[in-house]
Amino acid sequence: MVKLRLRENESINDAVKRFRKLVEHAGIKKEMRRREFYEKPSETKRRTRRRADRRAKLQRVMSS
């Protein structure tokens, strides 16, 4: 949960910018995008497996 308290003499625009940064840093935006559409468990597993394969391939290339 993100909490934001207005500072003394802070404009609304500055507060909104700080709020956006806090939301981004907390990972809420990323989580919302991930949950926007239902993803089948098989698709989730496939995505994580592909990510791991890419990481392993990159490691092999970097160590060579």
TrEMBL record:
Q: Which family does it belong to?
A: Belongs to the bacterial ribosomal protein bS21 family.
Which Gene3D superfamilies does the record match to this protein?
Answer: Ribosomal protein S8
- In this chain, the stretch annotated as Disordered covers 37-64
Q: Which domain of life is it from?
A: Bacteria
The organism's taxonomic lineage, starting at the top: Bacteria, Pseudomonadati, Planctomycetota, Planctomycetia, Planctomycetales
Q: Which organism is it from?
A: Planctopirus hydrillae
Name a Pfam family for this protein: Ribosomal_S21
Q: Tell me, which GO biological process terms does this entry list? A: translation
Give the gene name: rpsU
Q: Which UniProt keywords apply?
A: Ribonucleoprotein, Ribosomal protein
GO CC, sorted alphabetically, is:
ribonucleoprotein complex; ribosome
Q: Name one GO molecular function term.
A: structural constituent of ribosome
Among InterPro entries, the record links this protein to:
Ribosomal_bS21, Ribosomal_bS21_sf
Q: Where is the composition biased (Basic residues)?
A: 46-58
HAMAP family for this protein: Ribosomal_bS21
Q: What is this protein called?
A: Small ribosomal subunit protein bS21
